[in-house]
Amino acid sequence: MPGAGTVPPSPDGVDDGPPPGLWQKMRADPEYAPEHLAIEAVTRIGPKMVIELQKLRAMNPGAPPDALASMVVYRYTNHARLSGAVSGAVGLAGAVLDVGVLAWTQAKMVLLIAVIYGRNPADPERAIELLVLQGVHKYTDTARAALQVARGRQGIETLLPDKRRPVNQMLMRLGLKLAQMAGIRAAKRIFAKLVPGAAIILGSFANAGATKALAKKAIELYGRPQLPAQRPPMQLPSGDPRKP
Predict the structure, then answer these.
(1) Closest by alpha carbon to 133, among 152, 109, 115?
(2) Burial bucket for residue 85 (CB in 10 Å: 0-12, 13-18, 19+)
(3) In b/e form, how buried is each residue of 187-223, taking b as 16+ CB within 10 angstroms?
(4) CA–centroid distance for 108 within its chain
(5) What are the pLDDT digits (tens) for 97-136?
(6) pTM given for the model
(7) Contact 158/24 with Cβ under 8 angstroms?
(8) How far is the C-alpha of 19 from the C-alpha of 31, rounded, in Å?
């Protein structure tokens, strides 16, 4: 599935889309695809977002967190809009690829907003918050439980031989779960990929709108003052912030 279409490079140069290993996990276990993606994003991307914040601060010295967050929202919303307009992937597989890349991009944005407001982007709690923010789960307790199940299935279910379920059935289920995570209507997204010309209009606006709505919720969550019982913010590493 990776490489099936043309996706514009990420605005931060960090992991344009889900890595092949993650696609494999999600195809094997589509029911828990959002949980697998959240775990992978926090583990793989979280530490890199600390460096991204350093670079952002170096380019905008003295800018307060709210201003930095606004820059991030603008950057990722534009990227989501462009991604929805130019992706060359078609058909059902193309729709799944698009929503997977969008969900991954949105996860990066949320983690960068989190570190801007002093949260540790590599903390496993971020995966729980990501699933709640993206509407996969309504409560943190259910998100936490689902993540625990997904972690267990990584070592069992995803290593079992293929159960030979129909490919289209698997793709449809995976697409529905990822579309839920990305905040867009799966039917609209699939329609956009199956009807010539519709992808440019529906894909662009659906991606941007969903990303902007998610950003607003993330800023509301992480912009709140931290309670004393909460973990301290992550310390930025020393060194030249302009070096990746």
Answers:
(1) 109
(2) middle
(3) eebbebbeeeeebeebbbbbbbbbbbebbebbbebbe
(4) 6
(5) 888 888 999 999 999 999 999 999 999 999 999 999 999 9
(6) 0.79
(7) yes
(8) 19
